[in-house]
Amino acid sequence: MVVDQLSDAELDRLFQAFADTTRRDIMRRVAVGEYSVTGLAALYAMSFAAVQKHVAVLERASLVTKEKRGREQIVRGNHDGLEKVRRLLDEYEVIWRQRVARIADILAEE
């Protein structure tokens, strides 16, 4: 199970990365194409430094990769990191569905 393979710190980084609207939007964008940090910064009403910090949070969570191309930093979605998140959430869904089914069984007994 992915849940068992990740440390608490790794789980915290993943959930922290998705806890912010801007980071979720950046993920949506870089999942389908690459963007420079400058290009991303132009899309948001915040400073370049603020966008850089959002990208750094995503990078620490292994959800994006950065590559230096000339003077630009190119950001791409990290397929392996996104796949890990998908498997993690699938596992949580199974756990919760099992719990709901068990509650339904208990209620049916009464």
TrEMBL record:
Limits of the HTH arsR-type domain: 3-97
SUPFAM superfamilies reported in the protein's UniProt record:
Winged helix' DNA-binding domain (SSF46785)
The domain of life for this entry's organism is Bacteria
From the Swiss-Prot or TrEMBL record, what is one GO molecular function term?
Answer: DNA-binding transcription factor activity
Q: Which InterPro entries match?
A: ArsR-like_HTH (IPR011991), HTH_ArsR_DNA-bd_dom (IPR001845), WH-like_DNA-bd_sf (IPR036388), WH_DNA-bd_sf (IPR036390)
In terms of CDD domains, this protein maps to:
HTH_ARSR
State the name under which the record lists this protein.
Putative ArsR family transcriptional regulator
